[in-house]
Design goal:
It is a single chain. By secondary structure, the protein is of the alpha/beta class. It has 3 domains: about 5-105; about 135-185, Alpha-Beta Plaits (2-Layer Sandwich); about 190-390, Rossmann fold. About 40% of the residues lie in helices and about 15% in strands. It has helices at about 5-25, 30-35, 45-60, 70-75, 80-85, 110-120, 125, 175-180, 190-195, 215-220, 235-240, 240-250, 265, 295-300, 300-320, 340-350, 375-380; strands at about 135-140, 155, 165, 185, 205, 230-235, 255-260, 275-280, 325-335, 355-360, 365-370, 370-375, 385-390. The strands form 2 sheets. Strands 5, 6, 7, 8, 9, 10, 11, 12 and 13 form a 9-stranded mixed sheet that branches. The chain starts with a helix and ends with a strand.
Length: about 400
């Protein structure tokens, strides 16, 4: 593909991503793969170049752009070389008209940027949400230890006890250490969020919103593969990913439980008041994960955020009912909005006066935020998280 044809390809893919964002359709990564699957003439260098353009444009546009062309014009406004590729040649975009307006810049749609600012995320902190994420690993202590593990390339030790950092794009999944389950791909913030629960060997632990099981596997390692670990989720497809991951990691204590949305309490009645620790990694806006999914900020609406916070409150109460007296409850969201983090914990405590005590997480990173700690990419080099731990009295 010529450089100009790559620009047109990026415009076409962005058009599909923008349409999907407006309709909450197919994720950007899948749209990108689908587009190239039907265009065998494009080589690996073409795919890399187009991908760079697509994601640079997504990061450069705050609100949802009117079109893929407008999104690329946002980049071209500061890049004369890119602007020159709008030359009208075959397979190239038409020349830029004098009155054409590029898409608006910014961190996010205005309402969302304002919500972040009200939560203390502005300036460099806000800009860092759109930076590029590195590749973090967690060494699986059921099979290895960071101090003695040999990897094909050098890795940076992270503040998480078994965390390592590599450059983005490192082909970890081809390594023997990965296929044998010695390491898992897991962001630093996610590692710290799971560690905050302080799961111990022999305990009964519930991962209420386990998803594909990244934190579940870390909890199992912290428990030294002893005790009872219940992994729950209402999403069958995501939960189905846990079993093969657990087998690769050598985890033998996980019990999967598929929940029926709206009937979670009934499905967990046998666990009520019996868990030593419960982790609620709640469904959220994902504002802390934009480094990996920058188009996600185009999909969030005030209405969707309100739905999420209502769901979070319900899950908070469901998870709390599982904890025994003296047990621990962990609240985690990969969001930097107070309404999903500090505000949710404060609302929960107000609903259950005198029943719970805040225990500040013992973590090597994080800024105090209300009753918990917050991780911000600009300050801590991780995805954005809010983490709180509570003790049942």
């Amino acid at each position: 593909m010529t450089p100009s044809a790559r620009v047109q390809a990026a415009i076409d893919i962005l058009d599909a991503i923008i349409a999907a964002a407006r309709s909450n359709g197919t994720p950007a990564d899948r749209l990108f793969s689908d587009w190239f699957r039907t265009r065998r003439f494009a080589g690996s260098s073409d795919r890399r170049a187009v991908r760079e353009l697509v994601y640079a444009a997504i990061r450069a546009c705050g609100p949802v752009p009117a079109s893929g062309r407008a999104a690329l014009l946002r980049l071209a406004a500061d890049d004369p070389t890119l602007a020159s590729l709008f030359d009208g040649a075959r397979h190239a975009p038409a020349p830029i008209a004098a009155d054409e307006e590029p898409a608006a810049g910014g961190v996010a749609p205005p309402w969302l940027e304002a919500a972040l600012a009200r939560s203390g995320i502005a300036g460099e902190d806000a800009q860092s949400l759109l930076s590029r994420a590195p590749l973090d690993l967690r060494v699986n202590t059921l099979k290895a230890d960071r101090a003695t593990l040999a990897l094909p390339v050098p890795a940076e030790a992270l503040p998480a006890p078994q965390g390592l950092r590599l450059p983005a794009g490192t082909p970890v999944e081809t390594w023997e250490a990965y296929t044998r389950g010695l390491v898992e791909v897991q962001d630093l913030g996610s590692q710290l969020a799971a560690a905050a629960l302080a799961a111990r060997p022999g305990e009964t632990v519930v991962d209420l919103c386990a998803g594909a099981g990244g934190k579940t596997l870390e909890l199992a390692a912290d428990m030294a593969n002893t005790g009872r670990l219940l992994a729950c989720d209402a999403n069958r497809a995501r939960l189905a990913q846990l079993a093969p991951r657990a087998a690769r990691a050598g985890v033998a204590i996980v019990e999967e439980r598929l929940l029926d949305g709206g009937r979670e309490a009934q499905a967990l009645a046998d666990c009520a008041g019996k868990a030593d620790a419960v982790l609620i990694d709640a469904p959220c806006s994902g504002t802390g994960t934009w480094r990996r999914n920058p188009e996600a900020r185009w999909r969030l609406t005030p209405e969707r955020l309100a739905q999420l916070t209502t769901l979070q409150s319900r899950l908070f109460d469901i998870g709390a009912a599982l904890v025994r007296p003296g047990g621990r409850l962990g609240w985690v969201v990969c969001s930097l909005l107070d309404g999903e983090g500090a505000g949710q914990v404060e609302s929960f405590l107000a609903r259950h006066p005198g029943q719970w005590q805040v225990q500040p997480p013992s973590l090597p990173l994080g800024d105090p935020r209300g009753p918990g700690l917050r991780l911000v990419p600009a300050r801590h080099g991780s995805d954005g998280f809010f983490v709180a731990t509570l003790l049942r009295l």
